[in-house]
Amino acid sequence: MKAVRTPCIGICSTTSFGDKICRGCKRLSVEVINWNSYSEPQKQAVQARINQFTSQLMANKFRIVSQAKLEEVLQDLRIFYDPDLSPFFWLHQLLQKYLYRIKTLSELGVELHVEFKDQDVRDLLLLINEELLVLSQAHFERYFMR
Predict the structure, then answer these.
(1) Which stretch of DSSP H or E encloses residue 93?
(2) Cα 98 off chain centre by
(3) Rounded to whole angstroms, how far apart are CA atoms 101 and 91?
(4) Chain centre distance of CA 94
(5) Distance between alpha carbon 102 and the CA centroid of its chain, in Å?
(6) Cα angle vertex 17, ends 90, 145, to 5°?
(7) pTM, whole model, 2 decimals?
(8) Measured between alpha carbons, how far is 8 from 3 in angstroms, rounded to an integer?
(9) Displacement of CA 107 from its chain's centroid (Å)
């Protein structure tokens, strides 16, 4: 079984601000705290949930024109990406951490869907992050607040 890397992107709000859900990786605070004690299947379940939520929301607003170009940029910036996860997940992590370094989406091999083409990428990323927090909060309430 392949070891699951932490989804942490170095922007942790659970430890810094006491958030229930991390603004960076979207893990629940309990998952951040207990990550090192989780079994690989537990880590895979957390990663799968975050990948699914993120990929769905990103795919609703972005289109990956060239996955090869996206991978090239990730490699150039020395950003780890798991080939088993969705390219939309990679894109989200890239934008979360390095949006300030990106001039155009086309340099990433990415474009916005027509209905979002006039929106600022920063605003879309904020919207996606808000949606991720809502989904994560619902997950937390359903499975951890019993």
Answers:
(1) helix 87-98
(2) 13
(3) 14
(4) 8
(5) 17
(6) 80
(7) 0.86
(8) 15
(9) 20
